[in-house]
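User: I'm curious whether this sequence folds into something compact or stays loose and floppy. Could you predict its structure so I can see for myself?
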Amino acid sequence: VDVQKQMDAVFCDLENFPGKLGKDGTMPQGAMVIMDPYTGRVVAMYGGRGVKEGNRIFNRATKAYRSPGSSIKPLSVYAPGLEYGVITPWSVLDDVPKNFSVRASGWPKNEVGYYTGRMTVMKAVERSFNTLPIEILDKVGLNKAFNFARTNLGLTSLVERRVKTMNDGSEKVYSDIDYGPLALGGLTDGVTVLEMTAAYSAFVNNGIYTEPYIYSKVLDANGEVILDNEPVQTPSMSAKTATYMVEILKNVVTGSQGTGRKAALGNGIEVGGKTGTTDDSYDRWFAGITPYYTGVVWFGYDKQQDVGKFSTNPALTLWKAVMSRVHEGLEARSFSTSVELKSCTICADSGLLTTEWCQNDVRGSRAIKVKLAPEDVPTQKCNLHVPVEVDGETNGIANEFCPLDKLKTVGMLKLQREFPTSGVVVRDQQYLIPYDPSAGMFLPLTEDRASSSAPICTVHSIENDGNTLPEPEPTDPDPGDPD
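Assistant: Here's the prediction. I'll summarize afterward.
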């Protein structure tokens, strides 16, 4: 397959570029790089929409530095988190706001507009949630995460520290060693499409980072080699980390709520990827991997402005259009790895081995089957699920007046959450047994203590005691009764 020819066909067809005329009278642009992840050879590149208009013109694939949004998370958060043993793909953290000084109502926000509560790393990447990356960065350390992305994965455009003198003489310090840049992708300068393509390729190549190259040799008129561009390869992460990252990225495409579902090629060739959108919707990205190639697309205006709303990320749409053509006729193939993963069953709320109460959670079984390296398979049992009696009629936590013959025992979560402000809504809070922070303990399950946690049965009370036998109906005295 002539990969460049297939890319040219898509990028020259302006029907593939959605969007409207921008404020400056221009249309949205796009750029793409496809690379052989095993050799570093750039097999195709396009630096702008439409037919190429000249030589040595501005190439957005190599010269445009743009913020990558969430597409940076696998490189600066999840890969270092895995490499330094902070997480596995099936670690469970709390999807809740992490900081209340940045924003009084809680920061960061998720694009979906709500917090879910207990969530696996796998699911957080699938849905591109913002809260878990903040916590993972905390555990890895900002400097270690920054150096991993910049040194191990070649994102050399990341800014360590830059001081700018303002008009009033004051100094402003810029740095990408912070939560916003590393976890959410709002960078000082940005990254190039070429940088991102090479970085994602390391996942496919068992953790080996290969510097991308466009030419291999330059010969003189006599056939003598005057420039030899041998690919430079360096280990960037363990094979286990790379294998885990491939599994995580595959789930973005195959997961029921994956933001990259439409990238699936449907021909037996595995696909993984990650979407990216910046806060102001200036930039859209899709970084995609297959066992054959790594391809990354950027979409946006040259002069930053909102690209608008689309049913599908336009960068993903371009990626799919190109890669479908590139992979046409290629044999079905899965990603290869030297790491053996073992199947096990864990609790979706704790990440530990399941108990009876995980399987009998009030929501239904919370047991999930996962694959982990043998050394990462948990050995401890879930410490969050506890048995709780509920009223079978109302499904509320049972009180002393609920009918005994209607009680059933289910699993609920014994977990503390405290926020410095009211109004923080976490979707799984209703499945937690009540906790009183002022008392520092879990308290008896009474109605007045459950306003934000699991609901107590309110149907049965002293006035409506489900265990009180009905009074017998009065009857006329029997004349033959001596009493």
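Summary: The chain has ten helices and 19 strands. The longest helix spans residues 239-254.
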